Amino acid sequence: MGFLSDQLVQENFQDHRLKTLKVICKEKIQQPNNQITYGVPGVPINPFTVRIVPLSFTSIVDQDKVFNTWQLRITTTDTSGSANAIVTYREDAVVCPVDLTQWPGQTVVQKHDVEFRLIGEPTAVGQLVTVNFVINYCLVVAKEVLLKVNGAIPFC
Questions:
Q1: Percent of all residues in the chain with a pLDDT value above 70, rounded to a whole number
Q2: N or C: which end of the chain has fewer CB within 10 A?
């Protein structure tokens, strides 16, 4: 028994339902003027540095707005060592130019090229450190949809 040489003949075509994502909103986001204050185990010794790493995010979609909450790991380093703090930060609402709830289906929010960039120097008052930063990323909001496609599925 051999393989069929042309599997894409009309007799092999049939209707298929495919689940895919339909992009509703794609925006380059720059959120300036963010500030967060967090506690550290000891008083930081000057000079000290701060590094922000996003661990995860959750999003709520409401009409034309996306509300993001970030889970961040902030590392404070001075001459005596490093200390990590896990903090929650609620970002200002991101506005998309369309009503995101007008299509049925599951909403999927994705972000890529995420950058938390520090602005200026961090400041410490006792064991409280304050940092100012900008958030840059590409936001994609999509809906799950079903497509009906007429096609053939080749064996190999």
A1: 94
A2: N
Give the span between the Cα atoms of 72 and 78, in whole angstroms: 19
Peptide bond into 47 cis (omega under 30): yes
> How far is the C-alpha of 53 from the C-alpha of 117, rounded, in Å?
10
The whole-model pTM stands at 0.78
CB of 67 closer than 8 Å to CB of 42: no
Q: Please classify residue 87 by burial: count the beta carbons closer than 10 Å to its beta carbon, then call 0-12 exposed, 13-18 middle and 19+ buried.
A: middle
> What are 117's two structure tokens?
């960039």
Exposure string of 99-137, with b = 16+ CB inside 10 Å and e = fewer, is ebeeeeeebbbebeeeebeeeeebebeeeebebbbebeb
Note the pLDDT tens digit of each residue in 44-97: 999 999 999 999 999 998 888 999 999 999 999 999 999 999 999 999 999 988
Nearest to 93 by CA among 62, 54, 132, 52: 62
